[in-house]
Structure formats: C-alpha cells, structure tokens
What does this fold into?
Amino acid sequence: MSDLPRGWAEAGRARRRARMWLTPGMGVKRWLLLFVLCTLIGAVGFLHFTWTGPLHFVATRWILWLNALTEPNVMPLYAGGMFVMALALAGAFLSIVMLNRSMLRSTGTAPETAVDVIYSRRALSRGARIVAVGGGTGLSNLLTGLKTHTGNITAIVTVADDGGSSGRLRESLDMIAPGDLTDCYAALSDSPVLARLLLHRFGRGEGLEGHTFGNLLLATLSEEQGGLQGAMRDVHEVLRVRGQVFPATTTPTTLVARLSDGREVRGESELARQVGAARVESVRLEPPDLPALPAVLDAIRDAELIVLGPGSLFTSIIPALLVPGIARALRDSAVPVVYVASLMTEPGETTGLSLEDHVAAISTHLGRTPDGVLLNSKTIPPEVQARYAAEGAQVLNLQGASRDLRSRVRSAPLLQAGETARHDPEALALALLNLFARPRTGN
It folds into this structure.
C-alpha cells in the first residue's frame, strides 16, 4: 500500500508530461498529425501494391487469416482491420518514443525532463523583448528574475571597472573590464554548474588569487580572438546563456568624474574614496568616441522594454549610457525606458542625492528622461536602515519629489528578505512586466 501514492504521483507526472507535449506552441501536434496521415496513406499504398502486384496471394492469405479470427461473427470484418491498424500505429509511436529516448540519453538529456526543457524554451521564446542596461550586483539580480519569464533578454553591461580582478586583467592585457560581464553571464546561464564555476574566486595561487574563473575565461577568449567582440558567439554558446550579454563597448575605457569642488577623479575604483564632502556633478568616458556593437544597437531597436539599473548611478548605469551609439539608440527608441531606483543611496557616490537627483543625472547624461521609475514600496527594517545610515546611506523615496516625477513613479514591494537592502529578483521582474511591459499583439 505504501507504493500506491508513489505510483499515483508518477502516473500524474506522466499525464502532465503528455498534456505538455500537446500545449499550443510546442510545435508537436502538427508533426504528430502528419505522422498519422502519412502512416495511413502508406498503409493504403502498401495494400494497393500487395493486392494488385506479385504479392497478391500474400494479401489474400492475410485477409482470409484475419477473417478467420473474427469467426463466428465476434466482430465485423472491417473491425479486425481497424484493430490491426491501431496496433500498428501504437507500435510506430512506441518506436519513435524509444528512438527519441535513446537519442536524448546519448546527448546527456534525461528523457523525463525533455518536455520540461522544450516547454520552457518555447514559452520563454515568446516572452517580452527586454534590454537591461547597467552593471554590478543590481543588474545580475534583475537578470536572475527576468530569465524565468522571457528568453529575449539583452544585457548591456558597463565595462569601466578598474578595481580588483577586473583592474588587474585590464592592466595586464589591455582589455575591457570582465567582472560585471561575468556576473551577468552567471545570472543568465542555463547551467547551475557553469554559473557556480564562473563566480568561483581563487583564494590562493600566485597570480590567481583574487581572480574569478569567469574573469579568466573571458580574458582567455579575449586574448585568443584579439578582443571579446570576435568571441561573443562562442561565449554565449559555451556558457549556455538564456538571452544575450554584451559589453557596452569593446574598447578599454576610463571613467572620469567631475566633482562639485572642481576636482576630477579618474577611475571607477577611486570615485567613492576621493569624493569626500563634494558631490559628483557629471561623469564621462575616455576616450569619448567609443564604438558600440551592432548587436547591441539591434537589440535596442527591437526592444519592447528598456530597463536602466538597478545599480550604482555613476559607476554602473550612466557609464553604459555614455557610449554615443547606445545613447543615440535609446533617445530614438519609441518604447518605455524605465529606471529602477536603488533602495538606498551609496556612501561617497550618491550621498545626499534624492530620487529626483538620480533621475536628473540620468536625464542629463542620456539626453532623455526615463518614461517610468520603479520604486520599492516595502519598508526596510529599522535595524537595516540604521546599519546603512551608520555608513552614510539613506533610503531613496519620494520625499521632496516634483509632480512630474511623481507621475512617472510606479511602486511595488521589491525588497528581498534578509539583513541587506537588496532587490528581490522575482518581485522586480514581475513588477517590470506587469507595470511597464506592453501587451504583445503578435507571436
């Protein structure tokens, strides 16, 4: 009796898999119908051949034998033929199923999960076309949430980082910063094992300590291909990325910030350390005439929703907007551009800036005001606020916001449970899709 529930559960899973095969959009029913039709036509053709050709005596003996099975009038003569035909079709279906199972096993795919994989990919292929711009933990968090709803994601990642592992590789190989790219590839990878390996940071080893495996992989491909631009297709295929991840530019670049006290700070890693009591007034990239990948511009042109952030304002979001081709494409786009506001200000970089200041900085550097702003509505626990306040960070809210900004803001509970102020990936993805994505009329 103890095995009955297990048997029922397995039978239920089998029925569910069978229904999934017949779900609209799977691309199965049309071929199944064609198979049945061709089988029936083939049976008629074979019957015609045997009855009118040299095998006439075989057909005659077969029919007489089959008729004998129906005596004494157990069933009509034609019913015997229908029964045999049904058995033949069932055998043909079984042979195809077993052939597919053998082929799937030979490629390392479990036959039981094949329908789930196909169903997921078919459903995701019809999802909204979304372009996400930024970098750091915020962007990878967003991608983690979006990839369960759509496979049509393009991440445009800032590559101006010059600290840590990325900085060392940039200096050694004269390449773009790979760190934020690695995080995004891990977030969108279909393989949990690959995602874990990409983020593995070496804790020892001369020359390896501090580097992540993903950074070294991208550095290797960049070195082999003479830059990442030539290796993009290989990267997406090797890492089994659900969507696309591209650098904002494939040319090494340096972030330069102008402060309110007249100073200029060169390098992303120096910005927070050197701001002091001043504020960041503007940032630029050197060299300024940076090229954008054609695939990036195509993705922006075909997008149904463009998302800026979440992430550090002056070191993650705005640097990607400073590539001339990207800025021009975003300004020309007719689809909504949404800024996902940070939960808190960042000490040094955005200390004292209001939400209005954040939106104004994006508008100034991009040349277009975001059509929408997504803001967290869930209260951050007092103890978490206190800990951040001790470091100089404050909650971003609508306090002091203008009427124009308030008309653009949409709020949703986006806070992830825990001891840190971080967006919940699933809640963030759902809020963007529900509040800003346009209903799809095609596909």
User: Anything to note?
Assistant: The chain is about 50% helix and 10% strand. Residues 3-119 form one domain.
